Amino acid sequence: VKIRLLLFVVAFLCLSAFCAEQGKQKTLVLVDNWVTTDTHMGLFKMMEDLGHELTIEMHSSPKIKFQEFDEFKYDNLVLMAPSIIETSTRIKLQKVLEFFDSEGKNILIMGDVDSKKYNRLLGAKFGIELDPQGSRVVDPNSYINFTSEGKKFLQDFQDSNLISTSKILDSKHLFTPGKVVYRGLGMKLDQNNRGVFSILSAEPSAFSVIENEDKIVNSREIVLVAGYQSYYNNRLVFSGSLDICEDQFLLLSGTNNMKFCKEMLLWNFKQTGVLKTSKPMHQRPDEKGIMPENYVMREWTEYLLEIYEWNHNSKNWEAFDDEKVQLEFHMLDPYYRVYLGHNESSPVYSVTFQLPDKLGIFQFKVNYTRTGYTTIREATKVQPFIIAQVPVR
Predict the structure, then answer these.
(1) Alpha helices in the chain (DSSP H)
(2) Which of 83, 115, 160, 325 is deepest in the core (most CB within 10 A)?
């Protein structure tokens, strides 16, 4: 145990600088049994290095104090208990949903092929449908070229169905491309649920099968790890595999599991993909820095907004870069919809346009939604002309 711990101290030394901007996050981890604390030492070390104060309990433990005086005691909830059922756990399903709906709360769920009804119902609430109990994802075209060291680590898994995939969420900053080794359950996503998306999916050649029945239950767009972000930017991650972040998988050379699990935690607990805005304003192009109460019809206006992205490495807010941030000049419906221009090194986004020849109260609105990032919602009301200048008939 001491040797394994030393390996992880070295392997995760680079994570020691990571912590939440707000300081320590209180995180409750529920497990099926205490074996998980031995098999996932690396994952727990990651969490601590990322600024989490961990409380680890059996899901049925009477010691759990999840809520006191209608206030939740934790910032995050991690469920590493695939066998959890409603009648055995101290935290009922409805209470988990109430927790997620509270301000700033996040949830990580890690299941496996034997995930029970509790996890399945919880996933369904977020548009995630788990494949039938007892099924697992296999891929006859997935070849994993382990080193001799890797084979030694995985000697207990040689008769199991291990697959590898490179289908990770395509994002500039959130997840690093690479092969991830996976053993577990497949999932499907509700295409009508705008909050849910795939973080890691299986290759097209993979399928989900109940082996002892020789029955294929899913063969299209199999999701392995899903993400969900609420309207208020609370985040949930659901992994169909508990093994994906197990110690033996994390230490395999030639695979991306360690980096993937770290980046999954960073996103899940809002340390990446976090945006903020500052100094929204509109002005006449020839009157810089003065925000008028109203305008004359067909007058020109300039709209400006600063957008920043949190950098977990530098622990600073840095200029966000995207050419697809739109401004709507809105009265009931968008009257104009234009892209905001910006310099890549500057946080300032701006656009200049001519106001319409139309009576009404308008709004400058920026509603920016991009998969994996917190949503931006900015709105500023403006009357587009002075009433005294409306022609009298």
Answers:
(1) 2-11, 35-39, 41-49, 93-101, 117-124, 148-153, 247-250, 257-268
(2) 115
DSSP string of 169-228, one letter each residue: ---SSS-----EEE-S--EEE-TT-TTEEEEEE--TT-EEEEGGGTEEEE-SS-EEEEEE
The answer to whether 153 and 251 are in contact (CB under 8 A) is yes
pTM for this entry: 0.86
Find the length of the chain. Answer: 393
Instruction: Give mean pLDDT in consecutive 10-residue pieces for the chain, a chain of 393 residues.
Output: 41 37 82 94 96 94 88 95 85 94 95 92 96 89 57 44 79 83 94 95 89 80 95 96 94 88 96 95 92 87 96 93 93 88 92 88 92 94 64 45
Amino acid at the residue 118: Y
Distance of CA 90 to the CA centre of its chain: 26
